[in-house]
Amino acid sequence: MWTWFHKFGSPPWLYSIAGSILRWLVPITVILLAVGAVWGLLYAPPDFRQGNSYRIMFVHVPASVVALAGYYVMATAGAVSLIWRMKMADIALRSCAPIGAMLTFLGLLSGAVWGKPTWGTWWVWDARVTSMLVLFFLYVGIIALYEAFDNEELAGKACAVLSLVGTVNIPIIYKSVDWWYSLHQPASIKFTEDSTMDGSMLRPLLLMIVAFYCLFASSLLLYMRSEILRRESSTNWVRKLVLAKAGQGSANAV
Amino acid sequence: MHPVRKQRLLIVCFIVVFSSVAAGLVTYGLRGNINLFFPPSEIVAGKAPIGQNIRLGGMVVDGSLKRSTDSLRVEFEVTDNRATVGVVYEGILPDLFGEGQGVVAAGKLDESGVLQATEVLAKHDENYMPPEVIEAMKEYQEAES
């Protein structure tokens, strides 16, 4: 029953399967991002109160949503790494951190740019913004902790524990605007009732969220592939792969 | 599942539950300090300190906005539908500031219970609509009445 699962522990298998997924995932990501950006930034109607400045939402919301979801991906990899001692889970955890940090930073930056014209300030220490900053520090902390160890097994273990402890922050970020008085408005996209956003704006936003999920997945797979090559650089299968590529290259040159 | 792995799974669950409880207790202990602002009803009830920097949040009362003719001084009232607090501010207001809209004002309460604000921020809600939809809704409401 567990054989399919244990396949994920094999670096050559994961490397090649990631390669074949990327072959179609990258074009899909590019198309979705292009369509979503043009739809949201050019064709969606302006907002009755904020005018055109609300369009920052088409970057701000997807980046923040995927930054939160990406943390669960990272923590799940951390749990798998702790329970099954799987090297590939360590690689997934280490690869999630810089991507999540970038997305969180993008969410914070676009939020600041949006906050200036609407709220009247770049930054406010309310529950939502502050907990999002904590998420950024968690991602950066994972990277720093990983690099602080010489022993990669030890580094993986420490980061897995930190990533699990950090999961508590995700529901706090999500519910912060409901639990406390904050300057940030509550969520417009609702799961249990009608969204408080007109369909003409909601559709491009949902498309952009899907596009950012694809962007996260393809960045993660690309990062994992390079990380696999780096760690397995002294093994036979990588040597064969490199020689084969080099052979192709010289054949093309001739 | 292998017993060793089952034990590690328990440890993982323990880490998540234990850290969640710890974080929950901390946020419960700090719950008053995490709020960005006081609603007017809490200020009227005397829960906010006088003479210290605080923030007040609520809706600007319709028709309460008074602009000075020779300076940037404005006066308005903020309500949460239970109580109302007056605000005095001298400075530039954000674009989204307006009567009937959300606002967060930072400053000090004076003896008479008026907030002498040093900063006024606009708080917008989660509703996003194209202008045509709002126009159509207004026309519909007028036709109804």
UniProtKB/TrEMBL annotation, chain A:
<keyword id="KW-0997">Cell inner membrane</keyword>
<feature type="transmembrane region" description="Helical">
    <location>
        <begin position="96"/>
        <end position="115"/>
    </location>
</feature>
<protein>
    <recommendedName>
        <fullName>Heme exporter protein C</fullName>
    </recommendedName>
</protein>
<feature type="transmembrane region" description="Helical">
    <location>
        <begin position="21"/>
        <end position="44"/>
    </location>
</feature>
<comment type="similarity">
    <text>Belongs to the CcmC/CycZ/HelC family.</text>
</comment>
<keyword id="KW-0812">Transmembrane</keyword>
<feature type="domain" description="Cytochrome c assembly protein">
    <location>
        <begin position="14"/>
        <end position="183"/>
    </location>
</feature>
<dbReference type="Pfam" id="PF01578">
    <property type="entry name" value="Cytochrom_C_asm"/>
</dbReference>
<dbReference type="InterPro" id="IPR045062">
    <property type="entry name" value="Cyt_c_biogenesis_CcsA/CcmC"/>
</dbReference>
<dbReference type="InterPro" id="IPR002541">
    <property type="entry name" value="Cyt_c_assembly"/>
</dbReference>
<feature type="transmembrane region" description="Helical">
    <location>
        <begin position="158"/>
        <end position="174"/>
    </location>
</feature>
<feature type="transmembrane region" description="Helical">
    <location>
        <begin position="56"/>
        <end position="84"/>
    </location>
</feature>
<dbReference type="InterPro" id="IPR003557">
    <property type="entry name" value="Cyt_c_biogenesis_CcmC"/>
</dbReference>
<keyword id="KW-0201">Cytochrome c-type biogenesis</keyword>
<keyword id="KW-1133">Transmembrane helix</keyword>
<comment type="function">
    <text>Required for the export of heme to the periplasm for the biogenesis of c-type cytochromes.</text>
</comment>
<feature type="transmembrane region" description="Helical">
    <location>
        <begin position="127"/>
        <end position="146"/>
    </location>
</feature>
<keyword id="KW-0472">Membrane</keyword>
<keyword id="KW-0813">Transport</keyword>
<keyword id="KW-1003">Cell membrane</keyword>
<feature type="transmembrane region" description="Helical">
    <location>
        <begin position="205"/>
        <end position="224"/>
    </location>
</feature>
From TrEMBL, chain B:
<feature type="topological domain" description="Extracellular">
    <location>
        <begin position="30"/>
        <end position="145"/>
    </location>
</feature>
<comment type="function">
    <text>Heme chaperone required for the biogenesis of c-type cytochromes. Transiently binds heme delivered by CcmC and transfers the heme to apo-cytochromes in a process facilitated by CcmF and CcmH.</text>
</comment>
<feature type="topological domain" description="Cytoplasmic">
    <location>
        <begin position="1"/>
        <end position="8"/>
    </location>
</feature>
<feature type="binding site" description="axial binding residue">
    <location>
        <position position="128"/>
    </location>
    <ligand>
        <name>heme</name>
    </ligand>
</feature>
<keyword id="KW-0349">Heme</keyword>
<dbReference type="InterPro" id="IPR004329">
    <property type="entry name" value="CcmE"/>
</dbReference>
<comment type="similarity">
    <text>Belongs to the CcmE/CycJ family.</text>
</comment>
<keyword id="KW-0472">Membrane</keyword>
<keyword id="KW-1003">Cell membrane</keyword>
<dbReference type="Pfam" id="PF03100">
    <property type="entry name" value="CcmE"/>
</dbReference>
<keyword id="KW-0408">Iron</keyword>
<keyword id="KW-1133">Transmembrane helix</keyword>
<protein>
    <recommendedName>
        <fullName>Cytochrome c-type biogenesis protein CcmE</fullName>
    </recommendedName>
</protein>
<keyword id="KW-0735">Signal-anchor</keyword>
<feature type="binding site" description="covalent">
    <location>
        <position position="124"/>
    </location>
    <ligand>
        <name>heme</name>
    </ligand>
</feature>
<keyword id="KW-0201">Cytochrome c-type biogenesis</keyword>
<dbReference type="InterPro" id="IPR036127">
    <property type="entry name" value="CcmE-like_sf"/>
</dbReference>
<keyword id="KW-0812">Transmembrane</keyword>
<dbReference type="InterPro" id="IPR012340">
    <property type="entry name" value="NA-bd_OB-fold"/>
</dbReference>
<keyword id="KW-0479">Metal-binding</keyword>
